[in-house]
Amino acid sequence: MSVLRGRAELGDADAIDRLIESAAELGDLATLERLAGQGNASAADQLIESAAEIGDLATLERLTNQGNVTAADQLIESAAEIGDLATLERLAKDGNQTASEVLEEMTAE
């Protein structure tokens, strides 16, 4: 990993791609978040996917608050799967129409 990190820091695109893949396999959200913060869309997508897989709603919520629409969609899906009405209510209150619709469906049952 350290060799990949070094090559990635030098801008080696192949090393960046392999670093993202390895970080995802290892559940290294910190590396994915760092790369995403540097503007790497693949790292951001993988971060969202990995966070959802492990149920890390805090990461999804943080990304949502930063304006990431994909993270918001995944947060809504994850919150709905576990019945987290508080998160859905918060998103709906913030104007997220999808969250409002999901919340309405869940509370109508």
Notes on the protein architecture:
The chain is an all-alpha fold and 109 residues long. It has two domains: 1-54; 56-109. The chain is built from eight helices and no strands. The chain is elongated, with a radius of gyration of 16 Å. The model has no long low-confidence stretch (mean pLDDT 94).
What is the overall silhouette?
A: elongated
> In terms of per-residue confidence, which ranges show pLDDT below 50 for 5 or more consecutive residues?
none
N- to C-terminal separation? 48 Å
Q: Could you report the average pLDDT, rounded to the nearest whole number?
A: 94
Portion in beta strands: under 5%
Radius of gyration: 16 Å
Which series of helices and strands comes N to C? HHHHHHHH
Q: Briefly note the structural class of the backbone.
A: mainly alpha
Number of strands: 0
The largest β sheet comes out as:
none
